[in-house]
Amino acid sequence: MKKRTPVSDIMTKNVITLNTTDDLEKAENLFKLHNIRHIPVVSGEAIIGMLSYTDLLRISFADATDDQDSDVDTVVYNMFTIEQVMAKNLISVSSSTTIKEVAELLSKKEFHALPVVDNNVLVGIVTTTDLINYLINQF
């Protein structure tokens, strides 16, 4: 295992993002369509928050499989904005941060994704799944 491998080697570079003007129904659709669990919220190229699928689950029935529950979700989603639900005090890393440093950060915190930011521009996202896949590939 290489000790100085940068996170840019394993991060997702084509990041799905949301804006504060988007609604939570759009967010849920993106989570399900792309099979992802974290979406950075941006203003221009700058990241201002992170929305997780867990955030939606806390306020809705988003994981219900019954299509009739979608009406309930829509009503609940209309009560909140993305800005109200997203995490705002983010820790980010740069693309040159080592995978080891990212793993240490994620192991000590309660979140499972970090935005990768260079010069105040979102360039990627790295998740615990990315780290696990990297580890698996080492064997």
Automatic annotation (TrEMBL):
<dbReference type="InterPro" id="IPR046342">
    <property type="entry name" value="CBS_dom_sf"/>
</dbReference>
<dbReference type="InterPro" id="IPR051257">
    <property type="entry name" value="Diverse_CBS-Domain"/>
</dbReference>
<dbReference type="InterPro" id="IPR000644">
    <property type="entry name" value="CBS_dom"/>
</dbReference>
<protein>
    <submittedName>
        <fullName>CBS domain-containing protein</fullName>
    </submittedName>
</protein>
<feature type="domain" description="CBS">
    <location>
        <begin position="11"/>
        <end position="70"/>
    </location>
</feature>
<keyword id="KW-0129">CBS domain</keyword>
<feature type="domain" description="CBS">
    <location>
        <begin position="86"/>
        <end position="139"/>
    </location>
</feature>
<dbReference type="Pfam" id="PF00571">
    <property type="entry name" value="CBS"/>
</dbReference>
